[in-house]
């Protein structure tokens, strides 16, 4: 079945969530990587707990809650000013350096590009603008419309609904292995962008391909047999 | 409304999941605490992902999968013999030292005691026997009956169903803050056993009480106004 479209995860996949680390390090010397890691882990944990319990709060709220937790866990005092700076930085994460060139290759080949993210519409809009990725994506889909975070099926269903094709005609791209497992279970064709050289999660499901950058994604999508 | 029963979480609450650390340290010197932490974190992560995606596998399977991942993440070779020893240890975790005395206080006061756990019936049976806690619990409830892990409402619903009373007449006890948040959202009266001095999770929900050992639980349950 030919590939009709690509759906990209945003956070960690297109935008570097750890690009906040240097500001964190400025504000809390010696704590940058550790705080950034707890912040990210808690953010993801809260999306899952809220979805499991049907207690949705949007990704901006969850991101702030996770930051508050991370600072408390490390015994760091988060002043309102520092909180605003960190959240402001989160709204304008860096894109990975190869993105624009590879997205252009895909777009020029006539493939419909989209984003399917836990982020709010506002956050996604800001991040796209701040990272210079405007104009590449025909659809920017936020789970805020269904009030359930990935990996809930209702979130993944937004892709086929918006793109007007079957999940198996869509290549789903994420650097988050859990997201790839969820998307594969749902029925997407999948490529795991293993940016950090991690082992595959042991969930009894495998992505269709594994790569390490958006160039691998573009190479795979543009292969004659894909 | 008077308290009619208590539902205890098992792993981390009655049984010390980190009691595997010394065997881990014997098998992988210098890696004990780190491996035990990744093992536990992945185990919990996999329960959530499988529940969100309706891909249930039981807690024994998930525990083994998480161990495999943790070893891979640390670049450690897990031989079949070491795997069997670690899983065997997991089946016979230590109880926390104060448990028996405090459970006896509660039982003698006529309060119905139960367990509501992600573990399989077999795992719970083994852990209760190995830690000398036989005879205290009238109900040992495993989410295996509903094929959804906590914090899914279907899992928490097992308590009221088995105990024949309303969730708010049951005191739910867990050392896992996420479990306490889920149980409070569900409608239980809750006490968070904060065994490790962690900050409260930022989920917009608070336990009714916070303690640090089963003695605090018994004290609270036996207060005249509880």
Automatic annotation (TrEMBL), chains A, B:
Catalysed transformations (reactions): an (S)-2-haloacid + H2O = a (2R)-2-hydroxycarboxylate + a halide anion + H(+)
Pfam family, one: Hydrolase
Chain coiled-coil ranges: none
Domain of life: Bacteria
GO molecular function, one term: (S)-2-haloacid dehalogenase activity
Known EC number: 3.8.1.2
Keywords, comma-separated and alphabetical: Hydrolase
Family, per entry: Belongs to the HAD-like hydrolase superfamily. S-2-haloalkanoic acid dehalogenase family.
Function summary: Catalyzes the hydrolytic dehalogenation of small (S)-2-haloalkanoic acids to yield the corresponding (R)-2-hydroxyalkanoic acids.
Official protein name in the record: (S)-2-haloacid dehalogenase
Source species of the chain: Litorivicinus lipolyticus
């Amino acid at each position: 079945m030919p590939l009709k479209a690509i759906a990209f995860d945003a956070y960690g996949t297109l935008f570097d969530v750890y690009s906040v680390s240097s500001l964190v390090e400025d504000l809390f010397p010696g704590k940058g990587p550790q705080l950034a890691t707890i912040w990210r882990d808690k953010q993801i944990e809260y999306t899952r707990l809220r979805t499991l319990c049907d207690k949705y709060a949007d990704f901006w709220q969850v991101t702030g809650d996770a930051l508050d937790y991370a600072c408390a866990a490390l015994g760091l005092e988060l002043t309102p000013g520092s909180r605003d700076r960190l959240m402001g930085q989160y709204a304008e994460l860096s894109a990975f350096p190869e993105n624009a060139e590879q997205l252009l290759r895909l777009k020029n080949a006539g493939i419909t590009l989209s984003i399917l993210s836990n982020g709010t519409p506002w956050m996604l809009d800001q991040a796209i603008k701040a990272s210079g990725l405007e104009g590449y994506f025909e659809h920017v889909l936020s789970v805020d419309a269904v009030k359930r975070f990935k990996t809930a099926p209702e979130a993944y269903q937004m892709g086929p609904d918006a793109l007007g094709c079957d999940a198996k005609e869509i290549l789903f791209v994420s650097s988050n292995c859990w997201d790839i497992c969820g998307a594969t279970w749902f029925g997407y064709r999948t490529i795991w962008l293993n940016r950090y050289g991690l082992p595959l999660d042991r969930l009894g499901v495998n992505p269709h391909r594994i790569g390490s950058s958006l160039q691998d994604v573009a190479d795979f999508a543009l292969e004659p047999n894909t």
